[in-house]
């Protein structure tokens, strides 16, 4: 452990990690059962040492830096790179750790996940069981993948959306699926797909002889 990271400072970092977005000088002091002046100097020192992000708002949120997360051994280990072409030897020691899942996925405030069922979007790598990251919006450009509420029991679907005259065309990324068409005033866009978390298992390809 770095010598400047005293037990008191390490405890403060652990509290800030546990509190997450609720971590402020006031909340940390309350959690530790001490006054704000008692820990404000330690917080300032952690910012100077690079363990906390600098914040001009004295009572604003306290954010751990990547250095602090590595020190606390937080995050999913990243073991180098893996070749999808010519084979290479996979590294045995992690190169780094992800700061947090939201940062890894590039998520913003308001984004949410949906679990995919079905195989209509396999052409873009979205498999049955995957999660897609949705950014709320009521408008998308032609060709973007959107969550769309369609007629019939308020059913929602994930499809590529196109405007065609007074209609909305919804296309799958699977040639076995037919496209859908609805009057524009009967559908409602709920969000745009901005990423995915691949947890579904692809079907085994037929072996080539």
From TrEMBL:
It is an enzyme of class 3 (hydrolase). Residues 77-194 form the Peptidase S24/S26A/S26B/S26C domain. Pfam families: MarR_2, Peptidase_S24. The keyword Endoplasmic reticulum does not apply. InterPro entries: HTH_MarR-typ (IPR000835), LexA-like (IPR039418), LexA/Signal_pep-like_sf (IPR036286), LexA_repressor (IPR050077), Peptidase_S24_LexA (IPR006197), Peptidase_S24_S26A/B/C (IPR015927), WH-like_DNA-bd_sf (IPR036388), WH_DNA-bd_sf (IPR036390). Signal peptide: none annotated. GO terms for biological process: DNA repair; SOS response. It comes from the Bacteria. Keywords: Autocatalytic cleavage, DNA damage, DNA repair, Hydrolase, SOS response. GO terms for molecular function: DNA binding; DNA-binding transcription factor activity; serine-type endopeptidase activity. Residues 5-57 form the HTH marR-type domain. Its EC number is 3.4.21.88. Belongs to the peptidase S24 family. This is LexA repressor. It comes from Deinococcus metalli.
